[in-house]
Amino acid sequence: MATSATSRSDAFVFFGATGDLAKKQTWPALLALTKTGRLDMPIVTVGRHDIGVDEIRAEAKKSLEDTKSFDAAAFAQMSKRLSYVAVNYDDATTFDGITKAASAAQHPLNYVALPPQLFEKVAADLAKAGLAKGGRLVVEKPFGHDVASARALSAKLHAAFPEDSLFRMDHYLGKEQVENIVFFRAANRLFESTWNHEHIAAIEITMAESFGIEDRAEFYDSVGTIRDVVQNHLLEVMAYLAMELPTARGHTALRDARTKFLTHVKALGPDDVVRGQVRGYRDVRGVANDSTTETFASLRFAVDSPRWRGVPFYVRTGKSLAVTMTEAMVRWKRVGHPVLEDNAAPPANALRFRIGPDNFIALATNVKAPGEAMRGDSSELSLCRPATGMKAYERLLGDAIDGDASMFARQDTVEEAWRIVDGALAAKTPVYPYDKGSWGPQEASRLAPKGGWTNAR
Ligand SMILES: NC(=O)C1=CN([C@@H]2O[C@H](COP(=O)(O)OP(=O)(O)OC[C@H]3O[C@@H](n4cnc5c(N)ncnc54)[C@H](OP(=O)(O)O)[C@@H]3O)[C@@H](O)[C@H]2O)C=CC1
Ligand SMILES: O=C1O[C@H](COP(=O)(O)O)[C@@H](O)[C@H](O)[C@H]1O
């Protein structure tokens, strides 16, 4: 007999269908999975408001139009499968409505895109309603808010869903552009031999977003940017940039290598972080008027391994910044002297991995400037690849439907990541104000790479 670990899911139970994530990512992914025939099952949306399924259909349609992913035929197909159940999160018996709506399902996939403080309760109430038996649970990051709570959360979730039916979603693990970092390293011998402290001066990662928290206050104000994107997405990117390359094949080897790398990253202290809060944040509905939640962070990491000893890793991220752009930059050390007839040493070589919104890899080089003198000029070789493949949410939700957790986050990795950032969070360092549309507070320059951050072009 097929177990829940091997069976295909036969109902999609969707908590958070009205949320920000649903609008930007989940509805487009569900439509894409409908188009390819992989979401051939009832979709039971669940929320706290007393609304009908027509409101959910309208919400889904608007999200698809806003993200330019609407397709009338696929939407009609998906619409027929939709239902809506209103629940009261303080009354577990209201989950019986979900059981009724998914009554034909043996293997429901329960997908929870809610503020993380609700994960435990939802898992327990799903179990009481009989939706854990034979089913799966997908929870969105962040998993816990520090090491201790991540362990406690895992234990609580395991009381309802065993490890092989628990999927910890971190969509950066499903991004082509992120996977390409490690593939590019492994497949191009040219770089790997200099990928170490002898040649590399620093590694920097920027995840800048020009938009604010919009109507996500209930989620965001209790989390902040370090827990929202550094502890998970950006440490995953750092791991792909700097881990030892696995010799075995497959995703388990990649998961092991990422986790091993994180064990070498030193725990952050108060001097390794500068936090910022955008002016006007406290006026957003739902944000506490004395909130010290950071909407910006600049951090410096050190890696205690033979390969990286002495190389600083800088990470900067924030809301309401000058642009929306995620990029990782590997900077080599400079040639220490002027070349031929040049007056100054040439700029350092650097590799830029653009992760979003576009997708390219660029290599900064120095060439001879046209003319009689042997002088230099900088030039970037750029490798652009339009992102044509599956988007991260389609890929990961498709895997969850099939019961394949290999591209999801693992508990040991999650705990290592908390170990690294916990010290920076617990220190309650000052939160410096910054203007919307800027690159964060002035104070962040204290933790910048030598020569300053590279701001997006
Ligand atoms: N937004 C994003 O881009 C991404 C988010 N995520 C993760 O997804 C999860 C949800 O984030 P996001 O969608 O941004 O958050 P939102 O603040 O938009 O809320 C998501 C859902 O939670 C419901 N909700 C909020 N507060 C409560 C509450 N107190 N009780 C019951 N329901 C509540 C909302 O319902 P209602 O409509 O009723 O308010 C909404 O449907 C988080 O874990 C986040 O880390 C992951 C990747 C990207
Ligand atoms: O998990 C999250 O990610 C998004 C950014 O995702 P991306 O794929 O557009 O880079 C971020 O805006 C959000 O705050 C966070 O919860």
From TrEMBL:
One of its GO terms (cellular component) is cytosol. InterPro entries: G6P_DH, G6P_DH_AS, G6P_DH_C, G6P_DH_NAD-bd, NAD(P)-bd_dom_sf. Residues 183-451 form the Glucose-6-phosphate dehydrogenase C-terminal domain. NADP(+) binds at G16, A17, T18, G19, D20, L21, A22, K23, R48, K141. Pfam families: G6PD_C, G6PD_N. Its EC number is 1.1.1.49. Keywords: Carbohydrate metabolism, Glucose metabolism, NADP, Oxidoreductase. Substrate binds at H171, K175, E209, D228, K319. Residues 438-457 are annotated as: Disordered. It comes from Labilithrix luteola. Residues 13-180 form the Glucose-6-phosphate dehydrogenase NAD-binding domain. GO terms for molecular function: glucose-6-phosphate dehydrogenase activity; NADP binding. PROSITE patterns: G6P_DEHYDROGENASE. It catalyses: D-glucose 6-phosphate + NADP(+) = 6-phospho-D-glucono-1,5-lactone + NADPH + H(+). PANTHER family: GLUCOSE-6-PHOSPHATE 1-DEHYDROGENASE (PTHR23429:SF0), GLUCOSE-6-PHOSPHATE 1-DEHYDROGENASE G6PD (PTHR23429). The active site is at H233 (proton acceptor). It is an enzyme of class 1 (oxidoreductase). Catalyzes the oxidation of glucose 6-phosphate to 6-phosphogluconolactone. This is Glucose-6-phosphate 1-dehydrogenase. Pathway: Carbohydrate degradation; pentose phosphate pathway; D-ribulose 5-phosphate from D-glucose 6-phosphate (oxidative stage): step 1/3.
